[in-house]
Specification:
This protein has one domain (29-128). Helix content is 59%, strand content 3%. The protein has four helices and two strands. It has helices at 24-60, 72-83, 93-103, 107-128, and strands at residues 62-63, 66-67. A hairpin with a 2-residue loop joins β1 (62-63) and β2 (66-67).
């Protein structure tokens, strides 16, 4: 069998319809939607890192004034103290959460969290964002 150098199928001569090449007018709105989704996702990821996680730690009862009475943090501290003969060991989850609750994240932790959660949010936003490809289209 001799090769002729031309592509097989899809050229209209063998009964198959020629493949339509995507045009800029077809792909540009879809790409804009992905960029919008990625931007929104990155903003959500960074917001979670800088605001959501510290707010969640505070809501558990790890505050700047100490562990709030009757909170989840107080129950955690009690359990750790009972397990360790009345002391809360340095480096334990309770100690680390109290440190974050009292002083916030260090600069290194903020950089690490935002550099991890920002791109994760961007990837999720680009993948999940569903909008209109063309004016007049129904949302997907």
């Amino acid at each position: 069998m001799r090769r002729t150098g031309r592509p097989r199928g899809g050229d209209g001569r063998d009964g198959a319809a020629p493949a339509a090449a995507p045009t800029d007018t077809d792909t540009l709105p879809a790409m804009k939607n992905k960029v919008k989704g990625a931007t929104l996702g990155a903003a959500v990821g960074v917001g979670v890192a800088l605001v959501g996680i510290p707010a969640g730690i505070w809501a558990l009862g790890f505050t700047a004034a100490g562990i709030a009475a009757g909170s989840v943090a107080a129950k955690m501290m009690s359990a750790v103290a009972i397990a360790n003969s009345g002391a809360v060991p340095a480096g334990s989850a309770v100690a680390v959460l109290q440190s974050v609750g009292a002083a916030g994240f260090s600069l290194g932790a903020k950089i690490g969290l935002t550099s991890t959660l920002g791109p994760l949010g961007a990837a999720a936003g680009a993948k999940l964002f569903k909008g209109q490809d063309k004016p007049g289209d129904k949302p997907k």
